[in-house]
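REVIEWER CHECKLIST
Item 1: Sequence provided? yes
Item 2: Single chain? yes
Item 3: Sequence as submitted:
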Amino acid sequence: MEAMRFRRVRARGARAGPDRSQSMETTLKAVTIQAFGSPEGLAVIDLPAPAPGAGQVLIATEAIGVGGVDAVIRSGALAAYGFTEGHIPGGEVAGTVIAVGDDVDTSWIGQRVWAFTGVGGGYVEQAIAAIEEVLPLPASLSAVDAVTLGSSGVVAHFGLSHARFAPGESVLVRGAAGSIGIMTVQLAAHGGAGAVAVTTSSAERGERLRALGATHVLDRSGEGGADAPAGYDVIIDIVAGADMPSFFAKLNPNGRMVAVGAVGGQPPADFGMRMMAAFRKSMSFATFSADTVAGPERRAVRTEQFAAASRGALHTVVHEVLPLEQAVSAHRKMDAGEVFGRIVLTP
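Item 4: Structure as written out by the authors:
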């Protein structure tokens, strides 16, 4: 998924450069990972106000999305990818451009925008983003809704495309209560799916997902729902983890499973044995990251989805809006499985 771009992002301090901005504070608040492990390892610190480099903008953040990948990075599970303590989490923000670097048109200053900051750098009062990862916001779309939809909608769209989903096919969304799952349910329903099943942890969540387009509600193991299909043409898996191999049994012949996330951790090393055991069903498995989608394509889909949300054709689900200083609380709720939709931080 787009949030899982494993490039190291360092905390950015002030650096020399032309002043092409409004006046800025000398310091800002940021949340860093002081110690891998529990949410208590997060801490609020002061940083020098940054300045954008060539091809970058500086955004006064109004809303910061809290994603599943943030929690995985915080846990230390991705240390092998180069993440170290001191990392600033957060991959998407929305707010107002207050400064631009060289090679960026000054007309961006003052614009409300959504931006992808990478695999970090978002839990801050002022965030740096490359101009090609910045998108103007429709006047009627709030900053909170923008960071709830911005990355998750693109992952849902291209994840279904990667699975070669076609109208009339049955779809199972594993781990549907998060923002990616919620968007996948809506897009599958809008795309004419013959059935849209979801795995979730409670009947109450199931009913909320039905209101968004789900037709069948299953428990976390994929069981339940007396009238649910016996198998599915497409499974979009946001969870992965130890139980992922058991879901191969729920694929129809020629069925496709696409993992767009791994919030439940890595699957067993021998997970492919389940597929080999059912060789004659011609099943397929793939991972999907939005890194493999060209920037202009992501931008076009995101623009379309922002417009759809503005007119009510797509629905964002915000679990809670918390101050930046309560990032620990946000991560506790995520670890406890309490979140339906997205938690958003505000400076």
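Item 5: Key structural point noted by reviewer: The first strand starts at residue 27 and ends at 33.
Item 6: Recommendation: ____
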